[in-house]
Design brief:
By secondary structure, the chain is of the alpha+beta class. The protein contains 8 helices and 18 strands.
Length: 314
């Protein structure tokens, strides 16, 4: 099994004192067709900033036109010096914005998320104060990201996640849910149906051992899916490490017991590492911050912490 890198003797990475920023440009990226009223929330934030900020930045409203467009908008926004890029969205929209900013290379761009989606795990677990208030105060801080690379197969690319990367059961459930309309009852029925059909995946660890798993999650935040507590770790996501939550294959009733534990008492302490690597033995779906993708068979998957990779506010 994987453990922390034995050569890493530097210990936890401590977050420096906040730096005060005044922005020249503030870009609000939102989906104009959002079910979470993103256009209205973006307009309200724009008006509030125009009224309350002690300076006068250029505020740009940037509606997306299609899936993935937020990546391009964020990358372009990050080319402007001293910019703040706000994702008015849920976890998926913020995922695109983060990857767009990271694709721009070395910039002084600051990121933020204003929750406007069905899944707002990142904001719920990391927000320190109302966003408009935080922007007015201008105190930014560094945040770790999860960096994922998936071998050299065609279409492979390096991607970042702000909250979690999941293999196994969680992306399979998400794929099935996406086939139908959203709604609490339909989602619950979908989860039950998918769970009944679910078959475990086999992976190969770096020491050559093979393991059948039900779920493998790399977590940069302590909670996901609104109520599931994955880890009791503190000082995250700014400690240069992430938690590994691995469910070896077991009877379905045992998986249900673990899921119930996650939503009540929590799963307790989990292994904390800076690097984790394995090889897929069959094609596997996975999730980055809720966005579903897939990786081919016989592919090396590497997840690493990117300490302090993103500057954030809020």
């Amino acid at each position: 099994m994987n453990t922390a890198d034995p050569t890493n003797t530097t210990g936890p990475i401590h977050t420096p004192e906040p730096t005060v920023r005044r922005f020249d440009v503030i870009c609000l990226i939102f989906n104009p067709h959002s079910t979470g009223d993103a256009p209205q929330l973006a307009a309200t934030l724009r008006d509030q900033l125009a009224q309350d900020l002690p300076y006068s930045p250029q505020i740009r409203m940037l509606p997306t036109e299609h899936a993935g467009h937020a990546v391009d908008l964020a990358r372009e926004a990050a080319s402007t010096p001293n910019a703040l890029v706000v994702s008015v969205s849920g976890d998926g929209g913020y995922h695109e914005v983060v990857n767009g900013v990271m694709a721009a290379g070395s910039t002084d761009t600051v990121c933020a998320v204003l929750p406007a989606g069905n899944a707002n795990d990142h904001h719920r677990t990391t927000a320190r104060q109302p966003l408009a208030e935080a922007i007015a105060e201008g105190q930014v801080r560094q945040m770790d990201l999860l960096h994922l690379s998936t071998g050299n197969h065609p279409g492979a690319q390096a991607l970042y996640a702000h909250s979690y990367i999941g293999f196994g059961l969680t992306p399979v459930v998400a794929i099935d849910m996406e086939k139908g309309n959203k709604g609490a009852l339909k989602e619950m029925i979908s989860v039950v149906r998918t769970f009944a059909k679910f078959r475990p995946f086999r992976i190969q660890h770096t020491d050559g051992t093979r393991q059948k798993i039900d779920s493998l999650v790399f977590a940069n935040i302590p909670q996901m899916a609104k109520h599931a507590t994955l880890s009791e770790a503190e000082d995250r996501p700014a400690d240069g490490r992430f938690e590994v939550i691995l469910f070896p294959h077991t009877a379905k009733w045992r998986v249900l017991v673990k899921a119930a534990r996650a939503t009540t008492t929590g799963l307790g302490d989990q292994p904390s590492v800076a690097h984790y690597e394995f090889t897929t033995l069959k094609p596997m779906p996975y999730q980055l911050d809720g966005e579903v993708r897939s990786v081919p068979a016989n592919t090396t998957v590497c997840v690493e912490s990117a300490p302090g990779a993103l500057t954030v506010i809020g």
